[in-house]
Amino acid sequence: MKAKIALITGGSRGLGKSAALRLAEKGHDVIITYHTQKEMADEVVKEIESGGSMATALKYDSGDFDSLSDFVKQVEHTLSQKWNTDKFDFLINNAGIGATIPFDKVTENDFDRFMNIHFKSVFFLCQRILPFMNNNGRIINLSTGTTRFANPGYSVYASMKGAIEVFTKYLAKEVGPRGITVNVLAPGPIETDFNNAAIRNAPPERRAGMIANTALGRLGNADDIGKIIAFLCSEDSEWINGQRIEASGGINL
């Protein structure tokens, strides 16, 4: 099987790192992005290359919308120079930030920052990168369980992810003629360093509450999500399209 190429935003740690490693295990090549964690991104690249796949890491700030055009050119250049192609196959929109901000404390700057990173940059990255995607590819957008159930302090974050969920359905409809599927993956509580490791470092009573409300009786980990991303990029998933897939172990059922 010829290796396909995945572009994963925010791939230096957490869910993006796991997705990169799981896709590489399937024999695919990977471009990951990082914002500030260059050394961590380089370690991910080394781990992938040690397994026989090709990988590279590109700097990308999804909060700086003016840098988007330059980033797309950088992807085009990288595909040409490293892979001798002008196309890739999988786009995983994973980069993001977290913050717990009560509704009455949200500022306009908070709102704009979350919108730029979680919605605007995803919308226009998809638009501008589509000419470089092969037909029959995959686009996977990351959302959150908190679009289904409400957690105080997540009104901005979850609202932007809700917009991504609607966008996913529209995009699936518009790129369907090219055989490209578009799905949204919504994790529940995951023990990573996202949002200052809010889940991993939560008080014991809060952790116990989340576990008690989850059918499988535990919190999630990065590989729980990375493996699903790898599956959604496989041929076995080709009839799944325009769907919100919650991966939460069955929380708040």
TrEMBL record:
InterPro entries: NAD(P)-bd_dom_sf, SDR_fam. It holds the Pfam family adh_short_C2. GO terms for molecular function: oxidoreductase activity. The keyword NADP applies. Signal peptide: none annotated. Keywords: NADP, Oxidoreductase. Belongs to the short-chain dehydrogenases/reductases (SDR) family. PANTHER family: OXIDOREDUCTASE, SHORT-CHAIN DEHYDROGENASE/REDUCTASE FAMILY (AFU_ORTHOLOGUE AFUA_5G02870), SHORT-CHAIN DEHYDROGENASE_REDUCTASE FAMILY PROTEIN. This is SDR family oxidoreductase. It comes from Candidatus Opimibacter skivensis. The lineage of its organism: Bacteria, Pseudomonadati, Bacteroidota, Saprospiria, Saprospirales.
